[in-house]
User: Which sequence fits this backbone?
């Protein structure tokens, strides 16, 4: 079969062609107010057009006034991404007509953005990837449009809600340094993690506070030039990004294999079809006619300002994971898991500070506690038990006062309801039976009551031991250490 | 008609001889009698009554605290937003627009107890030099109704010149206060850029626009400026520096001052009558003790081109919001694009369309460097030349306009209209304060003397103007009575 | 250089100004005349100067991140030419 008649798979395409992927992320900033006016930046759930004012409505005669914290958050993000912060930057008007853009221009940044030349380093499949960051800049979000029937291309009318118009939006442009969909996905996961960690974005892809567009082209391996770039939009989850890029690689690869040229266009990912669809507009191409925003004086961010923001930067997840490995002897895997979400990392550090061994803290947090938090929709800090209670509980296990299964039951019981684990153990006599003599007495009793099992075990059936262990555990109402009991039984039964 | 100053009216209010409501009524009647000039588009309705009542209370309860503008009737240009009052920017595209907010400058006047009576006619979106670009009909000059009052604030100049109100508000982007002041024989003051908040001013060119007063005396203009000026958190381009107390500077005279006369402003192109009146005014200033010094502003000639790139560029973006979606004219079509095209095609007049297209062109891909960027650089040259001049002189004096009021319809060629502003627009490009005050008549039509100051030198400008005014009587002249309605030009 | 007809239609479209053929020609002539004059700018030597985008000399004109008052939806929609419920309505976008 020739290459043109066979339907190439992703792997086959990638043998012949190298994908070149650049990602553009827009993240809404967690400020109190909008970028240029005092309306709330927290618009989700507001009734339509109730979170607006003359400024963000773009009425005649209004003027923008910059939100200082939005600038700070953007600089903070840029520093977390290793960017340079030029002393001078400014805003520009990006001019185009669309109903969700009230002024007919978006206040954004063009040729003098807040930051440049950063990078994000991460690991995929054991290999380190360093993706350059071209720039991080600040702009305002648009309103939202709803189309009659939901599909833009067929809608005879649409409606506009300007609640979101003017919310501060940070744009992070990545260099086209990514080569596989897996790398792209990991880049996004890392980027989102950092932004959430430093408190500037809530990382919510579904609600649109964290959005991603991709630019992808193919070239022959070894080439340094760039092929025709296709922009891909409308990917609302990391999985969608992965699937969309895989789809594009195959689509473009097949076309190129057939000797066709790739159309430079924008394509939208359609989840239901598992494909990208061309959004090529019949309208005139956009000429944004950028020019400096006359209503906003430029920014001069001196070294003092930048240093102050840098000093306030919290420890980044990667650094934190490395430190936990170094200081607490966690494995790379555990360190990564525990630092994946900032709340977990905080909880972890608090437990360790309270005297809980690192490994145990990690296991409990990422195991039972994570499960309970998910099921009850209550995070640990907001639960009845709380960090303090959990620390106390884990320490009881580590000290041998209770065994693992007792601890799990207690956790389940006290998580929402609250209570002092040590006190409960005391009250109900849940303490582990660890008195050697007591255990030996119980072991002897069980052996006496189960001659058949004894005979079976001595006859070579290992499983019979478990029945005997079970008997002792039952006699202690589950409060013995199973390993110790097993050891004692073996001793007794040894020939 | 009432030819009294703010001070004189204030005295009559405080003595109880009259009330704010009565003054407002007289103003309204006076404006009605000017109907043939068409200087006003609408009355401010309930707001007038409300403010008159408020002013009366202020005068009764705390007369010492009530400022000079308390109870004084005034009119303002149709580009200033006041909550609940229709503001149309002289345009069909904003006809019926009722702002849900009041701009800062106007709010300060209202808080000072001033009583708005009417909204004045103007060139559409403040674009024009003759008030012939209003979508609602041109304005006539009180001195000769067949002639233009100047623009774009023609209506505001006319109501003051005709004695209907003691002051009015206009806006100046390239000369739109000073030039009509010159054509109508009144004082018209453009503050330093950044002295008066633009919040509430329907933007034409954001880096050039300023709100300012028309009045029949420099002192009245100063009162209005003082009431409006100063920092506003809603305008990022406002100067944070405190406003100089203008009143104390006003009477200092010009003795010992050095006044520069820009050579390029006295060159050819001045009508003989204008030249004569201005030269006489300069001589008068010398008699008052000022030293006149010739200065040069070599980039003056380039200023027109610079302005007609930058202003249209900014306005092309500022007017993009008139799209028929949230307010204003909406011409319904099936597709959004056609709605935009028809709404804006029908809603904007020719001059506005010309400037939008000029500005869009100057910013468009491939032309940005040659036009917009180059203009911004020449602008630097112009500003620096003024700065250099002010190193050796305290203020500049020159004509406001090379010509006097011309007949309606005379300048149908756009470029010839633009040339009216050659002596005023450099001042906007540099962001400087400037005033025009009457300095004579040429064949029965007013001539204006312009005083230009360094940035934030508003007090200085007013001081020079006041010194000249105090020594002459041009500011007291009144236009001849209007022809009876049947003889009036439409 | 003379302004071409298609340059005028292009610019008119960028600015969403609907023009008749007659208007296109009329504006073409007028804009051409204005641009010819404005082209004089090219002769000015600006090699030694930077651009002035702002005359005020201000920098860092920001405000604190505090919430202010909003308009109630009724007021926000009060001037809306076409409304559906509490939304602004527009025609077919068809991008």
Assistant:
């Amino acid at each position: 079969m020739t290459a043109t008649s066979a339907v190439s798979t992703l792997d086959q395409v990638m043998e012949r062609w190298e994908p070149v992927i650049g990602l553009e992320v827009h993240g809404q900033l967690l400020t109190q107010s909008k970028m240029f006016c005092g309306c709330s930046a927290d618009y989700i759930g507001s009734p339509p057009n109730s979170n607006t004012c003359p400024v963000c409505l773009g009425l005649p005669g209004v003027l923008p006034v910059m939100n200082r914290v939005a600038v700070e958050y953007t600089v903070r993000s840029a520093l977390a991404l290793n960017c340079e912060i030029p002393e001078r930057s400014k805003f520009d008007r990006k001019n185009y007509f669309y109903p969700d853009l009230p002024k007919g221009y978006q206040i954004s940044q063009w040729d003098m953005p807040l930051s440049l030349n950063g990078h994000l380093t991460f690991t995929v499949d054991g290999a380190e990837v360093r993706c350059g960051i071209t720039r991080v800049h600040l702009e305002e979000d648009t309103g939202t449009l709803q189309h009659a029937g939901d599909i833009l291309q067929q809608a005879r009318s649409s409606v506009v809600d300007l609640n979101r118009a003017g919310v501060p939006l940070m744009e992070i442009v990545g260099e086209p340094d990514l080569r596989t969909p897996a790398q792209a996905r990991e880049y996004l996961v890392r980027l989102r993690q950092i932004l959430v960690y430093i408190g500037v974005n809530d990382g919510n892809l579904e609600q649109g506070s964290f959005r991603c567009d991709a630019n992808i082209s193919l070239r022959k391996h070894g080439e340094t030039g760039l092929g025709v770039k296709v922009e891909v939009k409308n990917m609302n989850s990391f999985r969608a990004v992965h699937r969309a890029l895989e789809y594009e690689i195959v689509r473009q690869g097949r076309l190129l294999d057939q000797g066709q040229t790739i159309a430079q266009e924008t394509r939208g990912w359609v989840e239901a079809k598992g494909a990208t669809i061309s959004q090529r507009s019949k309208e005139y191409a956009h000429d944004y006619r950028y020019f400096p925003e006359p209503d906003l004086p430029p920014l001069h961010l001196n070294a003092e300002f930048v240093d102050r923001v840098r000093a306030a930067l919290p420890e980044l997840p990667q650094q934190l994971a490395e430190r936990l490995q170094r200081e607490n002897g966690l494995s790379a895997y555990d360190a990564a898991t525990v630092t994946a979400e900032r709340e977990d990392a905080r909880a972890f550090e608090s437990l360790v500070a309270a005297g809980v061994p690192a490994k145990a803290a990690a296991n409990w947090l990422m195991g039972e506690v994570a499960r309970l938090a998910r099921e009850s929709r209550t995070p640990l800090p907001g639960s009845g038990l709380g960090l303090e209670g959990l620390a106390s509980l884990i320490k009881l296990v580590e000290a041998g006062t209770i065994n693992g299964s007792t601890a799990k039951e207690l956790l389940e019981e006290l998580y929402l309801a609250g209570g002092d684990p040590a006190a409960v153990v005391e009250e109900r006599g849940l303490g582990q039976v660890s008195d050697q003599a007591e255990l030996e007495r119980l072991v002897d009793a069980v052996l006496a009551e189960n001659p058949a099992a004894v005979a079976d075990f001595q006859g070579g059936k290992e499983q019979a031991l478990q029945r005997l262990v079970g008997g002792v555990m039952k006699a202690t109402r589950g409060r013995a250490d199973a390993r110790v009991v097993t050891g004692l039984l073996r001793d007794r039964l040894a020939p | 008609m009432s030819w009294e100053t703010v001070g004189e009216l204030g005295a009559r209010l405080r003595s109880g001889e009259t009330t704010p409501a009565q003054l407002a009524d007289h103003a309204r009647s006076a404006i009605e009698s000017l109907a043939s000039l068409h200087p006003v588009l609408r009355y401010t309705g309930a707001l007038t009554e409300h403010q008159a009542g408020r002013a009366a209370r202020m005068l009764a309860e705390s007369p010492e605290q009530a400022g000079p503008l308390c109870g004084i009737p005034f009119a303002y240009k149709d580009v200033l937003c006041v909550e609940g009052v229709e503001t149309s920017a002289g345009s069909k595209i904003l006809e019926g627009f009722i702002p849900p907010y009041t701009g800062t400058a106007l709010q300060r006047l209202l808080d000072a107890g001033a009583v708005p009576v009417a909204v004045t006619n103007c060139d559409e979106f403040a674009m024009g030099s003759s008030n012939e670009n209003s979508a609602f009909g041109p304005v006539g000059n009180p001195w000769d109704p067949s002639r233009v009052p100047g623009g774009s604030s023609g209506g505001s100049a006319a109501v003051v010149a005709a004695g209907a109100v003691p002051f009015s508000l206009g806006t100046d982007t390239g000369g739109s206060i000073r030039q009509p002041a010159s054509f109508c024989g009144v004082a018209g003051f453009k503050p330093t850029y950044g002295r008066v908040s633009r919040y509430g001013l329907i933007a034409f060119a954001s880096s050039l626009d300023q709100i300012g007063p028309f009045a029949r005396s420099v002192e009245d203009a100063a009162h209005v400026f003082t009431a409006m000026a100063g920092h506003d958190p809603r305008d990022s381009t406002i100067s944070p520096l405190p406003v100089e107390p203008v009143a104390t500077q006003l009477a200092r005279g010009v003795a010992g001052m050095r006044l520069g006369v820009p050579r390029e402003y006295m060159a050819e192109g001045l009508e003989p009558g204008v030249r004569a009146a201005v030269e006489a005014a300069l001589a008068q200033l010398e008699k008052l003790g000022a030293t006149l010094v010739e200065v040069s502003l070599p980039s003056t000639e380039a200023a027109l081109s610079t302005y007609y790139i930058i202003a249209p560029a900014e306005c092309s973006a500022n007017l993009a919001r008139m799209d028929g979606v949230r307010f204003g004219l909406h011409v319904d079509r099936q597709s959004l694009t056609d709605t935009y095209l028809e709404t804006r095609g029908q809603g904007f007049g020719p001059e506005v369309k010309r400037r939008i297209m000029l500005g869009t062109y100057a910013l468009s891909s491939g032309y940005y460097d040659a036009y917009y960027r180059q203009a911004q650089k020449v602008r630097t040259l112009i500003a620096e030349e003024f700065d250099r001049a002010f190193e050796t002189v305290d203020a500049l004096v020159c004509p406001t306009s090379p010509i006097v009021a011309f007949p309606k319809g005379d300048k149908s060629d756009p470029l010839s209209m633009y040339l009216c502003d050659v002596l005023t627009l450099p001042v906007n490009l540099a962001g400087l304060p400037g005033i025009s005050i009457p300095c004579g008549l040429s064949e029965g039509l007013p001539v204006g003397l312009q005083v230009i100051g360094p940035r934030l030198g508003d007090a200085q400008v007013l001081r020079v103007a006041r010194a000249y005014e105090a020594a002459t009587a041009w500011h007291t002249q009144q236009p001849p009575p209007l022809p009876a309605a049947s003889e009036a030009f439409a | 250089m003379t302004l071409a007809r298609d340059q005028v239609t292009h610019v008119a479209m960028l600015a969403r100004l609907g023009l008749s053929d007659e208007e296109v020609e009329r504006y073409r002539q007028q804009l051409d005349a204005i641009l010819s004059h404005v082209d004089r700018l090219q002769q000015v030597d600006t090699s030694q100067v930077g651009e002035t985008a702002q005359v005020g000399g201000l920098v860092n004109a920001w405000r604190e991140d505090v919430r202010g008052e909003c308009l109630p939806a009724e007021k926000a929609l009060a001037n809306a030419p076409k409304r559906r419920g509490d939304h602004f309505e527009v025609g077919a976008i068809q991008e």
